[in-house]
């Protein structure tokens, strides 16, 4: 009964636009708390935010660029949510200090809400927590949500499954062309920003990207990823980049692709929970794992035994 009363109170404040209720809900969901899950079920699917994923190697200037894009969105009267995802920092909460300091100018703006996710171990791990946090921000009524990831391997590919539009930020100086051409990363980007374009090698990087894109498979609806030179520190090229984000959103609408994105996001969330369950169960399945290592069981037999404890392996 107390649970129900708490839920009613939290939902009421959340729907009334209380930012503290949003912060509480995000904390509960990130921790995998039943109250957070219950609230999420009630409010999910309300709101239609434009979700933009921003990824790229550390040092590419993603936070500064995100900061500039927030300004562009606010100029247009949009209410903006930002999720700064740092999968590399499970203990120190490294995302929190760095991103919050860089985006401090928005601290007093009630139309901007910035949240760092730097936790592990919640239901679905960080990936599941990110999608759940997105759903909460969307239900809260944000017009645009930026999801910025630190960009280490898997998180670059994951973000494309979570966002409607994926922006890959590269810089001329960091050997980024080589990084970007690694399997999977070129394919996920809907737009490219060559940031710190004032450094040597900017034009060359754009030419390398163009050549690589000519060889990559066509995108849904025939979208051809554009490349924008930017200098986030001065704001140069940022307005054009923002217009590019808008153009991609229009493309998704015109070709009926948005609903597919929503379904893929939900599929990704369910997969994340399954993966986290599997990870937790194998941690405490020493005997099964030992039998696999000794060749007594196949990995499939061990996995089935974990999924269905009543089906005892031979």
UniProtKB/TrEMBL annotation:
Output the superkingdom of the source species: Bacteria
The GO molecular function terms of this record are:
GTP binding; GTPase activity; kinase activity
Gene3D superfamilies attached to this UniProt entry: 1.20.5.170, P-loop containing nucleotide triphosphate hydrolases
Q: Supply the InterPro entries for this chain.
A: GTPase/Isobutyryl-CoA_mutase, GTPase_ArgK, P-loop_NTPase
List UniProt keywords, sorted A-Z. Chaperone, GTP-binding, Hydrolase, Kinase, Nucleotide-binding, Transferase
Q: Which family does it belong to?
A: Belongs to the SIMIBI class G3E GTPase family. ArgK/MeaB subfamily.
What name does this protein carry? LAO/AO transport system kinase
Q: Which organism is it from?
A: Thermus brockianus
Taxonomy, top ranks, is: Bacteria, Thermotogati, Deinococcota, Deinococci, Thermales
């Amino acid at each position: 009964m107390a649970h129900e009363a708490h839920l009613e109170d939290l939902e009421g404040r959340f729907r009334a636009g209380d930012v503290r209720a949003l912060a509480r809900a995000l904390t509960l969901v990130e921790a995998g708390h039943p109250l957070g899950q219950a609230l999420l079920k009630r409010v999910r699917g309300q709101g239609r935010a434009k979700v933009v994923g921003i990824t790229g190697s550390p040092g590419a200037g993603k936070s500064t660029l995100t900061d500039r894009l927030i300004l562009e969105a606010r100029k247009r009267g949009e209410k903006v949510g930002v999720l700064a995802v740092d999968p590399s920092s499970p203990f120190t909460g490294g995302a929190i200090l760095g991103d919050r300091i860089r985006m401090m100018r928005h601290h007093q703006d009630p139309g901007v809400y910035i949240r760092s996710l730097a936790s592990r171990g919640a239901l679905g791990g960080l990936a599941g927590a990110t999608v759940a946090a997105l759903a909460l921000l969307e239900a809260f009524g944000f017009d645009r949500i930026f999801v910025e990831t630190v960009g280490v391997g898997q998180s670059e590919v994951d973000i494309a499954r979570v966002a409607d539009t994926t922006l890959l930020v590269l810089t001329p100086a960091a050997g980024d062309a080589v990084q970007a051409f690694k399997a999977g990363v070129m394919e996920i980007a809907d737009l490219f920003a060559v940031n710190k374009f004032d450094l040597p090698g900017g034009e060359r990087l754009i030419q390398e990207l163009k050549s690589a894109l000519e060889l990559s498979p066509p995108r849904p609806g025939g979208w051809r990823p554009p490349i924008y030179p930017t200098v986030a520190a001065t704001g140069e090229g940022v307005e054009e980049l923002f217009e590019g984000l808008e153009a991609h959103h229009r493309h998704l609408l015109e070709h009926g692709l948005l609903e597919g994105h929503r379904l893929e996001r939900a599929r990704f969330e369910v997969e994340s929970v399954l993966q986290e369950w599997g990870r937790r169960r194998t941690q405490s399945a020493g005997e099964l794992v030992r039998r696999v290592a000794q060749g007594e069981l196949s990995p499939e037999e061990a996995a089935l035994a974990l999924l269905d404890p009543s089906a005892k392996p031979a």
